[in-house]
Amino acid sequence: MSKKKRKIRLGRRILESLDIPEECYSAAAKITLWGKETLLIEKHKGIFSCEEERVRLFTNLGILRIDGEKLTLLELSNERLYITGKVEGIAYEA
């Protein structure tokens, strides 16, 4: 096993032993959905495309696709993105 993999495992074990939530140190986007109409996405890398029926975002894991009706961006910052409208699906594109 390489030194880099050992360091990553050791670092992850230390963080787990300190009871720090994975979302604090993970590179993955955090997605929070309230009902069917409000979506909060944190740790995104920017907008790939934005239409009324589909919003596509850059993330560390690839392109995140949100499908729905009358989707509207309420807030956009480097850290988070709010979307409202009828959310019908959320998926990572291959």
Q: If you had to describe this structure to a student in words, what would you say it looks like?
A:
This protein is α+β, with helices and mostly antiparallel strands and 94 residues long. It has a single domain, classed as Immunoglobulin-like. Helix content is 20%, strand content 52%. The chain has two helices and six strands. It has a six-stranded antiparallel beta sheet with strand order 1-2-6-5-4-3, with no helix packed on it. A hairpin with a 3-residue loop joins β3 and β4. It is elongated. It starts with a helix and ends with a strand. The model has no long low-confidence stretch (mean pLDDT 84).
Descriptive keywords:
single chain; 94 residues; alpha+beta; Immunoglobulin-like; 6-stranded antiparallel β-sheet
Task: Give a quick summary of the entry.
The protein has 94 residues and is an alpha+beta fold. It has helices at residues 3-17, 22-25; strands spanning 30-34, 38-42, 46-50, 54-59, 62-76, 80-92.
What topology does this entry show?
Elements: H1 3-17, H2 22-25, E1 30-34, E2 38-42, E3 46-50, E4 54-59, E5 62-76, E6 80-92
Antiparallel strand pairs: 1-2, 2-6, 3-4, 4-5, 5-6
Oligomer state of the chains in this structure: single chain
Number of helices: 2
CATH architecture: Sandwich
Shape: elongated
Give the CA-CA distance, first to last residue.
29 Å
Beta strand count: 6
